[in-house]
Design brief:
alpha+beta, Heat Shock Protein 90, five-stranded antiparallel β-sheet, 18% strand, Sensor histidine kinase, phosphorelay sensor kinase activity
Length: 439
């Protein structure tokens, strides 16, 4: 019931047009004329004025309705509104609910008596003639539909036999069947059924083919979004697996040695180790609070500190409170801090790693700064190169790709380093993208 109401409202004009004004004037003038004709004491002046208004208004209305530009404008506006409603109904993809909604939208806008959408084996949506006999999930029955699924060609059919119905045994006597394809793969069909072949005009063909292409394009866009999301999750899983092997054995060995020398610390590390890996396995969601990412990084650093000692390592975190509340993809800081421990630690002396997060103008800047070995400018420039698949390049490149994938244009990762003095890895997250993900 609500759907029908929304459909009718969706077809109402959004503004008061000149055609509407002329129609109102014609109606009002006509009422005045009739009232004066049936009234014993008619006012000749009023009757004359009403007649003039009626004549002028109906003349202007006819010209407006017959004007080719006006007709084309109205038709274009109607098609654009219908296309917009169709895309809105499709939402995130073409399923049973969206298909039924689209069929209900398309039916009043064509000469067809029924509109149907199928996948490659069953009905997804059906509106119009004999709707109760074509429920969602029912198997496709017509050979013409199977033929379109097989060869991906649009079919214009003028007899029941061509469709696959017995002659004279069905109220549907003509049809247009349009393939719905993603790339070269035909995923379904859009079908318009007609009472008579005479109802299939060039306009009807254009509507059928146009909306078939529109649905196919949207299906392709939805498929691309799904593939992108899957690729992002796979990258995250790959990053998780990269963290596990090296760190796992080193931490276990550290805890094992502490069980003899410092049992209390060993127990503490073992509890934190369990929390660390539980969080690692759970953080496959799209976004987490930045504070949680900092805490996970600090927990990781606790194990490295136990392994190397406080005289060799130090981690300092300086994060603004509003940055801590920001939503970010998981595993942004830990890979960068781990890289610093693995590659920047000098053979003698202490490595200090500083993590900062602050708002600067319209951006949020997150930096991982160390005072370790540093690197040459050539090595620094090669880190983000696609061919960099070893050492720092894997983790840094992964973080770079994921922040750009989540936050979009303007977001970037910068690396600065000087041999013997240290390295700075800077994440520049644009403020507009951050607000978008907050919402």
């Amino acid at each position: 019931m609500n759907v029908d109401i929304e459909d009718r409202r969706g077809n109402l004009p959004r503004f008061f047009t000149l055609e509407m004004l002329m129609s109102v004037l014609v109606a009002l003038a006509g009422l005045v004329i009739i009232w004066n004709l049936v009234t014993p004491e008619a006012n000749v002046l009023v009757l004359f004025i009403a007649g003039v208004v009626f004549t002028l208004a109906i003349t202007v209305l006819i010209r407006l309705l017959m004007d080719p530009d006006s007709v084309r404008a109205r038709q274009s506006n109607a098609v654009l509104q219908l296309a917009s409603q169709t895309l809105e109904a499709m939402g995130e993809g073409l399923d049973a609910k969206s298909s039924q909604r689209i069929c209900s939208l398309l039916l009043p806008s064509t000469a067809a008596i029924a509109v149907a959408i199928t996948d490659d084996h069953s009905i997804l949506g059906y509106a119009g003639y004999e709707e109760s006999h074509n429920p969602t999930g029912a198997i496709i029955r017509t050979q013409a539909t199977y033929a379109t699924l097989a060869d991906g060609k649009t079919r214009v059919l003028f007899t029941p036999e061509e469709i696959g119905f017995p002659n004279g045994a069905h109220g549907i006597n003509a049809a247009i069947i349009v393939p719905l394809a993603v790339g070269k793969d035909v995923k379904g069909t859009l079908k318009f059924y007609y009472r008579s072949a005479n109802h299939i005009s060039e306009t009807q063909k254009s509507i059928a083919v146009g909306f078939g292409q529109l649905l196919s394009t949207q299906m392709a866009a939805s498929a691309l979004e799904e593939q992108t999301a899957l690729a992002t999750k796979m990258e995250l899983k790959m990053l998780q697996s990269q963290i596990n092997p090296h760190f796992l054995f080193n931490t276990i060995n550290t805890i094992a040695s502490l069980t003899r020398t410092d049992p209390a610390q060993a127990r503490t590390l073992l509890r934190e180790f369990a929390k660390f890996y539980r969080s690692t396995l759970e953080d496959s969601r799209d976004l987490i609070e930045f504070q949680r990412e900092v805490e996970q990084t600090q927990r990781y650093f606790m194990f490295e500190l136990a392994r190397f000692g406080e005289d060799r390592l130090e981690l300092i975190c300086d994060i603004q409170s509003e940055v801590n509340e920001m939503m970010v993809p998981p595993f942004l800081l830990q890979p960068l801090v781990e890289n610093a421990v693995r590659h920047a630690m000098p053979s003698e002396g202490k490595l200090t790693i500083r993590v900062t997060g602050m708002r600067t103008g319209d951006d949020v800047i997150v930096s991982v700064i160390d005072d370790g070995n540093g690197m040459t400018q050539e090595a620094c420039q090669n880190i983000l190169h696609p061919s960099s698949t070893q050492g720092m390049g894997i983790a840094v490149g992964n973080v770079h790709d994921r922040i750009c994938g989540y936050f979009g244009p303007g977001t970037r990762l910068e690396v600065e380093s000087e041999l013997g003095k240290g390295t700075t890895v800077r994440l520049v997250l644009v403020d507009g993208a951050i607000r978008q993900w907050r919402e």
